[in-house]
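ARCHIVE RECORD
Type: protein–small molecule complex
Small molecule: copper (II) ion
Source of inputs: curated submission
Record status: active
Notes field left blank by submitter.
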Amino acid sequence: MIEKAYILDSTLREGEQTPGVSFTIPEKIEIAQKLDEIGVPMIEAGHPNVSPDVHEAVKKIASLGLKAEILAHARAVKADVDAAARCDVDRVAIFLGTSYTHLHDQLHLDQEEAVKRVMDVVTYARSHGLKVRFTAEDASRTEYNYLLRICRAAAEAGADRISVPDTVGIMRPAAMGDLYRRLVKEVNAEFDAHCHNDLGMAVANSLAALEAGATAVHVSVNGLGERTGIAPLADVATALKVIYNMDTVKLEQLPALSVMVERYSGIVRSQNSPVVGENAFSHKSGVHAAGVLANPATYEAFPPELIGRHRAIIIDKYTGRHAVKYQLERLGIQLSSEQIEAVLERIKNNPTMRNYRDADLVELAEKTSGMSFAAAVPKRVEVVILIKCDSNVYTTAVARKISSLKGVIDVNEISGEFDVEAKVVADSVSELNQTLEGIRGVGGVIGTNSSLILKKFGSNSQ
Ligand code: HCA
Ligand code: CU
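STRUCTURE (tokenized, with ligand):
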């Protein structure tokens, strides 16, 4: 049972601490708006004193008038609280390492000094009219009695929320439950869970903390964060729905958000990751596919439609006859059972073919049956065209002309070897040629390079 689970998304703060990631301010604004739109109630927008651009991003996000509470991260120093106040955020999250390692080796503070520092800085933030969360950094390696003491001190000074992070990801769910049950009982504040994924426990530990009385859970889109990151938003929100029947955010928009953050961060989730991974609703072996075709629940924890996705049946040497029949019928092809067996035999005898696309299956059906199924092959083609412009023409004018041509659906000015990129759709090769001729005929275009789109990977690609 979980009573409350407010999602706090820290893609813009913890997520930007991922090696190699630096979002632009417009990207951060777009991410924050999308998080707000899907119903995330708390957005940690950044640590303003990190750099001028982080400061500006936090300030801009705080001024957007979003429904979500906007937080700034801050060390337990007055200058960081001042910076948060200048950004006009709703809440400042003040962190201080409380474990022996952090106090002794990093901060060179004794336990008494740290308690006093936290009380002072929390009081200072409250006097600026800011709501305060206190984070006992490295809480999971902090001696319990001291952790209790510093959390109580922060609460007394005015922190109504306290984060007890598993900063290095060494907890296990049962221990997490014990820790939160004690703290929730003994401290007069609401608790946040912030679980790192160093041992792959982030989601399990987050849920354990919520079960034990934490009321907020920190996540990031795609699990971004220091080292191996923290609990991913999609995984936590979907688990809350599937296991506890709790509604948090608009689940069907999670795949699109994941793709947006993949693009802006340059970090892609693996194919087999939960919920948003490409394989999450793909069924391969003959036994699995037959089960799912009879009743999807046979091999699915939850229906893909819950998060706006679709299931896929994979065709390769593991495939069985049910899957072949299903895929062919989906393409409008009816074969006798002997013909299906023959198609299957060819598939099973070609282990190097890893994944049959529709066109490959149609070809096999034709070879096996001697019939023609040309009508079954999807005719619509999509092509990406890279366009080079003469150096003395105004690229924007060329791009604008191209975007008005029939069949052109998307045009971007780009940097690099080419100047403009256009996406073209056509119902036949001759129609495609006409559009290409049209593009080549635009004044200033001196060269093109076309590539056929074979497979799409977007939020609704499956
Ligand atoms: C950090 C540490 C932190 C803080 C978590 C929190 C952690 O990167 O500054 O404020 O709840 O993991 O301890 O991310
Ligand atoms: Cu962290």
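CURATOR ANNOTATION: The radius of gyration is 27 Å.
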